[in-house]
């Protein structure tokens, strides 16, 4: 394995079948450090992909490498990886503290170190006060947080989080996102799957869109959006005379649609050629003294890309 | 292992295993108390020899065929299968511990629990069944065959836990419903006295029975159906059982190595 | 005005009765069971013994059939008496135990394991109705296996022997009907209680057998160590066998009970003790059900 690959999570032609059912098909990917979001409808293969990174399931074919380590060696891999699974299940009869402490002991840390790490992890997710209560008596949000704490307590470099925002209230969700950001900024690989697209949009350095076991798109969301040529780009222009701009735009072939927004202070348009539109906009500003407050893509986000690439097929699931 | 011991020893769901183990002790203690009270005036109603045969029958028909068998089934088949059902096995699989070690750790924890429960039960039941004989029982224990018998029963108990433990650990890993193989094993083990001598030897109970210190007569009408076979000598039965258990454990470890997390099944 | 006041219209049409609502549970359970090829085969196979019995009754009363077979005096080989009917009940009851072990654990445990109990209890549906609904599945199926074929055979025998045979042997009918009900009520309660406490279906099924066989073994240990017969109080099939003996034969009995439900000679216990032990068992099962069948589980 090359030195370059030692900083990546890489999939080479990975497929996984459950009997005759397709889980993942011929996936080739490289996940760099930072926050990577896995997005796709239910059954698209997100959890399969995550389970394979953690070595909980094996690929039917292909090769996976996590920072240069094969998932077939859990002894090495599990020191690198922390996994917060989607299952809301815990070993019976343990308190939040015991839950984290017991599994840290299996990492070979000394008792004092386990204690320190347990307290630190619980503090990080705001559960110190509930540390000595049984996990079974926690609320859903608390259980989600204690799972997060358990996943990161051994200080992994790769953090895999399957639907980590489920069940969290808005405040806890914001705190969790801040934590993901912090880990991502530290250089960790944070792989998150989520259905909350606007939050995915906020936190992700890159996204991987999955549908029916195939990778539909991957990369930074702006690059992905620009690759979707068949869908006209939506652009919102805030200006003082939207009607004037609209009249000039309708003369252009690449403009599909333009509508004046409700407050009459802006124009939302759809164009097949964004570059031509920006040239035209410059000309209008120069010719008629149009005062432009802002120009911003309106569908340059995960939600729109999801709709364009997965669309009704995903929504139906 | 600490986690497993805590789960198994203090589990509310394991109450029936305690019942299986401690039930006979309660009966022998009751026997001691009743006989001590009755015997005060009229002397003992029966001999030490009778009680030792009764204990042998209890050991063979209750402990080996029911108590330890079902207890081991409850303890060992749950070590992995219960984790799968409760969707918690991935926590163990996500630790940097070799799966083989995980199997060994869980098995050892189960074995400690089984031996502590059933070993102490056998010892206590043996010590109390003849307690009402007073000094003659002490003499039987210390200067007669008592201590040797007790040691043999304890050894057989440990071997039964080792053997059945390995069988049920493996069946918990291999089968979604370990009760079906358990039922098959139970029927096979109970048919053992009536099987031809060659088939007899393919069972745990045959070797364990060979190690029991007191022969138990089979009551009529079953005695006519029993097929006699030469008992296996100690030096074959003990290492043989341990070797079979080791093979089963190695296979269980290899199975665990390739086990995948698939809770939806 | 609040939105609900403008738009909400409560349902004002006719409602089905409580009994019809109760039927919803067994209806779906029967559909589930019907899908299992194993259970279908087992259920059909359970009629082999009653069919053989019917054949025996027919042959006993048909001299020409015996003559055709060239058999003389075969009618005296298998007499249609108390042993005949008790054996039938014993055999069918043992099959009912297997059926309860297969079906019973799947009735309540999946609802508890999937937190679905609250969905039932959020409807106009009480805990008792839930238990009765679940239990009716077992009661119906086990009835079809035990007293229904037993009573049909009793009627067949009465028809062929002459109607006066029936009043003369009314005890047999009472024994079959009430004896079977004692057994199936105990089985149903035990199956539901274990299903409510043991969420893992195979374990609950295994425990069902364990309760019968290990308890009987435990009873034997008590009898052996204490040189007594009171250990039979742990042996459920002995207790039921004692009740059957009284139902079939009254105080003076000429047999040792049915197959699997033996009452060894000289080891009889007072009947009221047997009833008391069975009632205690039912009480424990009801307590177990009351503890677990709740809309919400409190974890401390």
Describe how the helices and strands are arranged.
The complex is a heterotrimer of chains A (317), B (265) and C (300).
Chain A: E1 9-18, E2 21-31, E3 34-39, H1 46-54, E4 61-66, H2 74-80, E5 81-84, H3 96-105, H4 111-124, H5 140-152, E6 158-162, H6 170-185, E7 189-193, H7 197-203, E8 206-211, E9 214-219, H8 221-227, E10 233-239, H9 242-249, E11 255-260, E12 266-271, H10 274-288, E13 292-297, H11 302-309, H12 311-315
Parallel strand pairs in A: 3-7, 3-8, 5-6, 6-7
Antiparallel strand pairs in A: 1-2, 1-4, 8-9, 10-12, 10-13, 11-12
Helix pairs in contact in A: 3-4, 4-5
Chain B: H1 2-9, H2 15-42, H3 48-76, H4 78-85, H5 89-93, H6 99-129, H7 135-142, H8 146-174, H9 179-191, H10 197-200, H11 204-211, H12 234-258
Helix pairs in contact in B: 1-6, 2-3, 2-6, 3-6, 3-8, 4-8, 6-8, 6-12, 7-8, 8-11, 8-12, 11-12
Chain C: H1 3-7, H2 18-22, H3 24-34, H4 37-45, H5 48-60, H6 63-69, H7 82-103, H8 105-113, H9 117-121, H10 127-145, H11 147-161, H12 165-168, H13 170-197, H14 201-226, H15 236-249, E1 257-258, E2 261-262, H16 271-292
Antiparallel strand pairs in C: 1-2
Helix pairs in contact in C: 3-10, 5-11, 7-10, 7-13, 7-14, 8-13, 8-14, 10-13, 11-13, 13-14, 13-15, 13-16, 15-16
């Amino acid at each position: 394995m090359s030195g370059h690959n030692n900083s990546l999570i890489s999939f080479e032609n990975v497929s996984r079948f459950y009997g005759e059912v397709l889980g993942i098909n011929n996936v080739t990917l490289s996940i760099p450090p930072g926050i990577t979001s896995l997005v796709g409808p239910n059954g698209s293969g997100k959890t399969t992909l995550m389970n394979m990174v953690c070595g909980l399931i094996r690929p039917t074919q292909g090769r996976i490498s996590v920072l240069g380590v094969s998932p077939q060696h859990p002894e090495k891999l599990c020191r690198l990886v922390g996994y917060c699974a989607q299952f809301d299940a815990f070993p019976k009869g343990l308190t939040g503290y015991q839950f984290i402490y017991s599994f840290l002991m299996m990492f070979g840390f000394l008792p004092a170190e386990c204690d320190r790490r347990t307290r630190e992890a619980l503090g990080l997710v705001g559960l110190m006060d509930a540390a000595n209560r049984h996990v079974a008596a926690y609320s859903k949000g608390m259980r989600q947080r204690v799972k997060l704490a358990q996943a990161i307590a051994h200080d992994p470099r790769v953090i895999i989080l399957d639907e980590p925002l489920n069940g969290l209230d808005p405040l806890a969700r914001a705190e969790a996102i801040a934590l993901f950001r912090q880990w991502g900024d530290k250089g960790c690989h944070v792989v998150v799957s989520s259905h909350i697209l606007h939050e995915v949009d906020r936190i992700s350095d890159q996204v991987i869109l999955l549908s029916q076991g195939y990778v539909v798109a991957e990369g930074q969301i702006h690059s992905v959006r620009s690759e979707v040529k068949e869908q006209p780009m939506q652009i919102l222009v805030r200006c003082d005379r939207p009607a004037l701009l609209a009249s000039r735009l309708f003369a252009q072939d690449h403009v599909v649609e333009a509508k004046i927004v409700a407050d009459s202070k802006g124009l939302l348009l759809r164009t097949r050629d964004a570059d031509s539109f920006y040239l035209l906009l410059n000309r209008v500003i120069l010719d008629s003294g149009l005062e432009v407050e802002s120009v911003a893509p309106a569908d340059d986000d995960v939600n729109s890309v999801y709709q364009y690439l997965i669309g009704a097929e995903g929504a139906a699931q | 292992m600490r986690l497993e011991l805590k789960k198994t020893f203090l589990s509310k769901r394991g109450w029936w295993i305690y019942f299986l183990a401690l039930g006979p002790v309660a009966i022998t203690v009751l026997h001691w108390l009743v006989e001590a009270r009755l015997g005060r005036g009229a002397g003992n109603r029966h001999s030490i020899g009778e009680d030792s045969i009764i204990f042998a029958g209890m050991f063979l028909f209750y402990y080996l065929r029911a108590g330890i068998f079902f207890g081991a089934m409850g303890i060992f088949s749950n070590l992995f299968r219960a984790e799968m059902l409760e969707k918690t096995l991935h926590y163990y699989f996500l630790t940097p511990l070799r799966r083989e070690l995980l199997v060994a750790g869980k098995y050892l924890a189960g074995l400690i629990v089984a031996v502590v429960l059933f070993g102490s039960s056998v010892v206590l039941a043996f010590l109390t069944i003849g307690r009402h004989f007073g000094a003659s029982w002490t003499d039987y224990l210390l200067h007669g065959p008592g201590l040797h018998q007790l040691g043999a029963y304890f050894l057989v108990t440990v071997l039964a836990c080792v053997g059945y433990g390995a069988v049920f650990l493996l069946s918990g890993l291999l089968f979604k419903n370990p009760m079906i193989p358990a039922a098959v094993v139970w029927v096979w083990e109970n048919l053992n006295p009536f099987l031809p001598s060659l088939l007899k030897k393919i069972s745990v109970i045959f070797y364990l029975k060979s190690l029991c210190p007191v022969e138990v007569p089979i009551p009529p009408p079953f005695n006519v159906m029993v097929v006699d076979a030469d008992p296996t000598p100690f030096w074959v039965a003990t290492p043989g059982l341990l070797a079979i258990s080791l093979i089963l454990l190695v296979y269980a470890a290899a199975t665990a190595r390739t086990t995948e997390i698939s809770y939806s099944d | 005005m609040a939105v609900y006041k403008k738009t909400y219209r409560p349902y004002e049409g006719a409602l089905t009765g409580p009994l019809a609502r109760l039927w919803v549970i067994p209806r779906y359970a029967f559909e589930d069971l019907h899908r299992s090829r194993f259970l279908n085969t087992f259920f059909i196979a359970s009629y082999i013994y009653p069919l053989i019995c019917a054949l025996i009754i027919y042959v006993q009363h048909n001299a020409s059939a015996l003559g055709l077979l060239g058999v003389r005096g075969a009618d005296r080989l298998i007499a249609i008496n108390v042993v005949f009917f008790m054996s039938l009940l014993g055999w069918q009851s043992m099959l009912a135990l297997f059926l309860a072990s297969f079906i019973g654990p799947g009735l309540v445990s999946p609802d508890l394991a999937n937190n679905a109990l609250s969905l039932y209890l959020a409807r106009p549906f009480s805990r008792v109705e839930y238990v009765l609904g679940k239990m009716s599945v077992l009661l119906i199926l086990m009835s079809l296996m035990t007293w229904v074929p037993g009573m049909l055979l009793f009627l067949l025998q009465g028809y062929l022997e002459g109607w006066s045979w029936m009043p003369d042997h009314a005890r047999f009918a009472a024994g079959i009907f009430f004896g079977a009900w004692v057994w199936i009520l105990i089985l149903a309660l035990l199956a539901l209680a274990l299903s409510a406490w043991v969420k893992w279906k195979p374990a609950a099924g295994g425990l069902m057998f364990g309760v019968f066989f290990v308890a009987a073994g435990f009873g034997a240990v008590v009898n052996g160590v204490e040189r007594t017969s009171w250990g039979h109080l742990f042996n459920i099939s002995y207790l039921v066998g004692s009740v059957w003996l009284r139902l079939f034969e009254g105080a003076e009995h000429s047999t040792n009970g049915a197959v699997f439900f033996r009452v060894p000679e000289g080891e009889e216990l007072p009947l009221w003790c047997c009833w008391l032990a069975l009632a205690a068992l039912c009480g424990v099962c009801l307590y177990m059900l009351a503890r677990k069948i709740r809309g919400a589980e409190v974890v401390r």
